[in-house]
Amino acid sequence: MTMKGKTALITGSTDGVGRYVAERLAAEGARVIVHGRDRARGEAVVERIMRQGGDARLLIADLSSLAEVRSLAEAVQRDSDGLDALVNNAGIGTSGAQRELSADGFELRFAVNYLAGFLLTRLLLPMLEGRASSRIVNVASAGQQPIDFAEVMLTRGYSGARAYRQSKLAQIMFTIDLAQELAGRNVAVNCLHPATFMDTTMVRLSGVQPISTVEDGGAAILQLVTSPSLEGRSGLYFSGMRESRADPQAYDRGARAKLRVLSFDLVGLADPLAARV
Fold first, then answer.
1. What is the reported pTM?
2. For the chain, what is the total number of helices (H) and then of strands (E)?
3. Cα–Cα distances in Å, from 231 out to 30, 99, 185, 189?
4. What CA–CA distance (Å, rounded) separates 32 from 9?
5. How confident is residue 161, by pLDDT bands cut at 50, 70 and 90?
């Protein structure tokens, strides 16, 4: 899929692998919507893209607030007449021993890593469906842990690693669920573990020694956005450049249904499939 003249939104693209993907897509001729929380850092990314002849726009939003996720979606809708690619990349790592809450009172990693992308995708889906062929990429992780639906918010036995892993598995479950919902339509939805311990701020803050580069992870993400070989293929999980298998819970239809009901309830949206019954 050529990106020349296409519009792409990459969340968390003021740093790390998100910035790399934004700059590469802009170099390929895409109009890039850069997203982040730090305005100065975001403006520097946009300036660099524009200086190199690309087209970029910055939108600021804190994804720990569902109200700001909604504002971000509204800004994208005002700014563009369509969207060809959405890369849900923004996230929080495993660092932090204390349980934290989002602005809406949800466990912070579940809120930022999963719920924000779920809501943003749902709100922007009409724009994506308005294109002849569009793609959604959820940047997950090989670090996955089954969700205990009796304790999703981890009020007992909290650890940052557990919170991170269940949020990443939730992204994968959402990918598969949405791909099945959109079967036969013009939107492909896939997810991936881009690379192990990339040299990013998130990895360094977790106290882990990086063993791969943002270029490694960026190439894997770009493959899901642009590769012609993935035309019409959806609901897949990749590890790096190769198709792989996620935690078994991702393929449990009942678990995905539970997550779907919970997610629509938490973000305050009506499930379009429930409305058809």
1. 0.95
2. 10, 8
3. 18, 41, 12, 11
4. 6
5. very high
Q: Which residues are catalytic?
A: 164
pLDDT digits (tens, 9 = 90+) for 86-102: 999 999 998 777 999 99
Specify if 277 maps to a domain: no
Would you say residue 149 has pLDDT above 90? yes
CA distances from 19 to 76, 231, 239, 269 (A): 18, 25, 20, 30
Per the structure, the complete domain to which residue 86 belongs is given by 7-268
Residue 274 lies in a domain: no
Domains held by the chain: number: 1
SS3 241: coil
Q: What is the CATH number of the domain that holds 230?
A: 3.40.50.720
Residue 276 included in any domain: no
Taking phi over 0 as left and psi of -120 to 50 as alpha, with beta for the rest, 210 belongs to: beta
One-letter amino acid for residue 185 of the chain: R
* Backbone angles phi and psi of 237, in degrees to 5: -120, 130
Asked whether the beta carbons of 109 and 160 are under 8 A apart, the reply is yes
Give the span between the Cα atoms of 9 and 72, in whole angstroms: 11
50: in domain = yes
